[in-house]
UniProtKB/TrEMBL annotation:
Family per record: Belongs to the mitochondrion-specific ribosomal protein mL64 family.
Gene Ontology terms: cellular component: mitochondrion; nucleus; ribonucleoprotein complex; ribosome
Localization in the cell: Mitochondrion; Nucleus
Reported function: Acts as a negative regulator of G1 to S cell cycle phase progression by inhibiting cyclin-dependent kinases. Inhibitory effects are additive with GADD45 proteins but also occur in the absence of GADD45 proteins. Acts as a repressor of the orphan nuclear receptor NR4A1 by inhibiting AB domain-mediated transcriptional activity. May be involved in the hormone-mediated regulation of NR4A1 transcriptional activity. May play a role in mitochondrial protein synthesis.
Chain intervals for the UniProt region annotation (Disordered): 223-270
Matches recorded under PANTHER family: GROWTH ARREST AND DNA DAMAGE-INDUCIBLE PROTEINS-INTERACTING PROTEIN 1 GADD45GIP1, LARGE RIBOSOMAL SUBUNIT PROTEIN ML64
InterPro entries noted in UniProt: Ribosomal_mL64, Ribosomal_mL64_sf
Keywords (A to Z) from UniProt: Cell cycle, Coiled coil, Mitochondrion, Nucleus, Ribonucleoprotein, Ribosomal protein
Biased composition (Basic and acidic residues): 223-237
Full protein name: Large ribosomal subunit protein mL64
Organism: Trachymyrmex septentrionalis
Length: 270
């Protein structure tokens, strides 16, 4: 299309639209000014019973633009009023329509949904071969199977518990010698401490007796005073001995450090 032809078409279309708008406004103004006789209108609308008119009216009312079968499904009705495909005449399809839409699903009597005597025999033979045991017997076997499984689980737990107990007992039996030696050591230590305390007390009593020159009762206040003084002196001596041991240990550590430094310096010089 040439440019000149295209420009001409655009101008013609614009003029046509303009003329249409002017004429429409003129007619609307004329109808507005003209009086309308309401009494001349019909009180009842006129409907045609023509099938073609009714079909056209129904199609106009269908705003969804769905196919008839789809619209029937949407409205809860059977999709087809008459069989269209070959499988629409099968018993399986008719049973499906009967189960989905009820008696409106098909025009067949309800008895067609029941199996025939031949089908009943086939089903009975299938059940006899597939399920030779009755439902009650199967239920009993299932309960027995669950009981046996529960007993196995219980026995396994008991066995594991016994194994754990035996392992714990064996471990403790291995440690019994060690525990016996530790107990004997604690008893010997306690006895040694008690014996040392006894000897200490006897020594203090002997020292106090020598101090007074005669045997004095432990309940005497002089004895108690002297005993307290002696204990105080012993604590002081122990404290000094401990302090001296600590100093000796520190001196030995310093000597070792000095010897190590001297050794390192000698090696570096060599």
């Amino acid at each position: 299309m040439s440019l000149r032809r295209w420009i001409c078409d655009v101008i013609v279309q614009r003029n046509v639209r303009f003329q249409g708008a002017v004429v429409g406004r003129f007619l609307a103004t004329e109808a507005k000014d003209k009086a309308v006789d309401i009494t001349a209108a019909d009180e009842q609308p006129i409907y045609s019973n023509d099938p073609l008119y009714q079909k056209e009216l129904t199609e106009k009312r269908n705003k969804s633009r769905l196919n008839p079968e789809h619209r029937n499904i949407l409205m809860g009705k059977p999709p087809y009023e008459q069989p269209i495909e070959w499988y629409h005449n099968t018993v399986k399809y008719k049973k499906r329509m009967l189960g989905r839409y009820g008696f409106e699903g098909n025009k067949e009597p309800v008895g067609f949904a029941w199996p025939t005597p031949e089908e009943v025999k086939i089903l009975q033979e299938y059940e006899r071969v597939a399920f030779p045991v009755s439902l009650q017997e199967r239920w009993k076997k299932l309960k027995e199977k669950k009981r046996i499984k529960a007993e196995k689980v219980k026995a396994r737990h008991v066995y594991q518990f016994n194994l754990a107990a035996e392992a714990e007992i064996a471990e403790k039996l291995l440690k019994i010698d060690q525990w016996t030696a530790e107990l004997n050591a604690r008893v010997a230590k306690k006895e040694a401490e008690m014996e040392a305390a006894r000897l200490r007390k006897a020594r203090l009593m002997e020292e106090i007796r020598k101090h007074f020159g005669f045997k004095i009762s432990p309940h005497d206040e002089r004895f108690k005073t002297m005993l307290e003084q002696k204990e105080k002196e012993e604590r002081k001596q122990k404290k000094e001995a401990k302090k001296k041991a600590k100093e000796e240990k520190l001196k030995s550590m310093i000597q070792k450090m000095n010897q190590g430094q001297e050794t390192d310096s000698t090696k570096s010089v060599e």
